[in-house]
Design brief:
single chain; mainly alpha
Length: 109
Amino acid sequence: MKVYFEKLMEHMTLSRLSIKHQLFIIVSIIALPAIFIIINSGLEQRKNAINHARTETLELVETIVSEQKNLVSSTRQLFIALSHLPEVTSHNQAEVQTILSEILKSSPQ
């Protein structure tokens, strides 16, 4: 086994290669760890950016859901209050229209 390894090394010695090829091999060996670190760092940054975007999106969705719940609750309260007005219970369309117009003027959303 040792003889085979020695013969293999004789055939693979750098001295038989041109200087151009020797430099290419040396630079490649030196550059490989740096390339690996750069790729790994880029993948890690991408993963972090995706997680950050996911977190921000969830927070935005929670805010929108909360706002929608508040809007539904406010609308429900308005309808309950309106349903107790005598103008509504007596089905007086003109007076109800006046009340709704006043509500709309006071909060024109």
